[in-house]
């Protein structure tokens, strides 16, 4: 296959990649904008806490955890499973904590895990 990089065998097997999401700590207050303050003043809605979830992207696939309502230190203990050929052509995993919102979800933080740093050669 001409599309495979050098060193990747043409016969690859399917594999499952398990990503375990445990918890997050010290998430920031999110709704501190002017519009949030106006909503607090007009209708008394006070929603400074975040509704976090984790979204993981790997090899063109996405998975996510459940949403933990109103939490600065959410606890998930969930796993996300991806099925992909091994060795994967993707070199990193994108992990993003997001705040669930009725209008638009907001990214709180993003981290990339380099697969070469957590795997063995061969």
TrEMBL record:
Keyword Repeat included in the entry's annotation: yes
C2 domain residues: 1-122
Compartments it resides in: Membrane
Keywords annotated in UniProt: Membrane, Repeat, Transmembrane, Transmembrane helix
Entry's Gene Ontology cellular component terms: presynaptic active zone membrane; synaptic vesicle membrane
Chief location category: membrane
Pfam family, one: C2
The UniProt record lists the keyword Transmembrane: yes
Membrane topology: Single-pass membrane protein
InterPro entries from the UniProt entry: C2_dom (IPR000008), C2_domain_sf (IPR035892), C2C_Ferlin (IPR037722), Ferlin (IPR037721)
GO BP: any one term: synaptic vesicle priming
Domain of life: Eukaryota
GO terms assigned for molecular function: AP-2 adaptor complex binding; calcium ion binding
PANTHER family given in the database record: FER-1-LIKE, OTOFERLIN
Protein name: OTOF protein
Gene field: Otof_0
């Amino acid at each position: 296959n001409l599309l495979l990089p050098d060193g990747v065998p043409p016969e690859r097997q399917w594999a499952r990649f398990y990503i375990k999401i445990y918890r997050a700590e010290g998430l920031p207050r999110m709704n501190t904008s002017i519009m949030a303050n106006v909503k607090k003043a007009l209708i008394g809605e006070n929603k400074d806490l975040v509704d976090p979830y984790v979204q993981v992207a790997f090899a063109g696939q996405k998975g996510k955890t459940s949403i933990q309502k109103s939490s600065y230190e959410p606890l998930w203990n969930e796993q996300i499973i991806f099925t992909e050929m091994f060795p994967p052509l993707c070199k990193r995993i994108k992990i993003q904590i997001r705040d669930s919102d009725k209008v638009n979800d907001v990214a709180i933080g993003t981290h990339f895990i380099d697969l070469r740093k957590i795997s063995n050669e061969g």
